[in-house]
Amino acid sequence: MALPDGPQSLSDFLSRDRNRIVARVQEMLTGYDREILTYLVPHLDEIETATRNLDLGGGIVTWQRHLGKVLDMVRLTRDGICLCNRLPDDSLASVRAEERKNLIEVIRSVDHPEDYSTTYVCRCRRCGQDYLAEEQIGWHVPTYEWRLVG
Ligand SMILES: [Zn+2]
């Protein structure tokens, strides 16, 4: 029988098994499950130690970097800070992806065809904070500059 999600996540992160860790990171970045994040808070040091020097592979963006995102979210959860607070530090956090994950909603968007960029006015669905996000279509992946508004 499978473990409940929290303990199963912890066991994946501590497994030193690249496939299990990557699959778990992927899952946690698609849903921002509050229960799992909360479950992992007291195990943060343990997870950091167990995963620190693992080669998780990955493309332009390595899986270690994605894992870093997940650990940042656990830290924010520990400190009682809304997950949207990490957006200004994450130039790869896509507006549409964050919207699909239900973290933010797009209030409006303005296209700038002259330089292939788009400006989005967004609001966090959890805490109500407003952001301006500038999307730049880069050579490999679009990048985003998130700024607090108000
Ligand atoms: Zn928020």
Q: How many domain units? A: 2
Uncertain runs = none
How many strands? 4
Count of helical stretches: 6
Gross morphology is globular
Rg to the nearest angstrom?
16 Å
Order of helices and strands: HHHHHHEEEE
Biggest sheet: strand arrangement:
1-2-3-4
Helicity level: 40-55%
* Alpha carbon gap, first and last residue: 49 Å
Architecture overview:
With 150 residues, the protein is of the alpha+beta class. It folds into two domains: 5-78, no CATH class; 89-149. Helix content is 40%, strand content 21%. It contains six helices and four strands; from the N terminus they run H-H-H-H-H-H-E-E-E-E. A four-stranded antiparallel sheet has the order 1-2-3-4. A hairpin with a 5-residue loop joins strand 2 and strand 3 (130-136). Helix 2 crosses helix 5 (63-78) and helix 3 (34-40) crosses helix 5 (63-78). The radius of gyration is 16 Å and the shape is globular. The termini are far apart. The structure holds zinc ion (ZN). The site of zinc ion has 6 residues, from loops.
Give the arrangement of secondary structure elements.
Elements: H1 5-13, H2 18-31, H3 34-40, H4 44-51, H5 63-78, H6 95-100, E1 104-112, E2 117-124, E3 130-136, E4 143-149
Antiparallel strand pairs: 1-2, 2-3, 3-4
Helix pairs in contact: 1-3, 2-5, 3-5
Bound molecules: zinc ion.
Zinc ion is lined by residues 82, 84, 124, 126-127, 129.
In short:
The protein has 150 residues and is an alpha+beta fold. 40% of the residues lie in helices and 21% in strands.
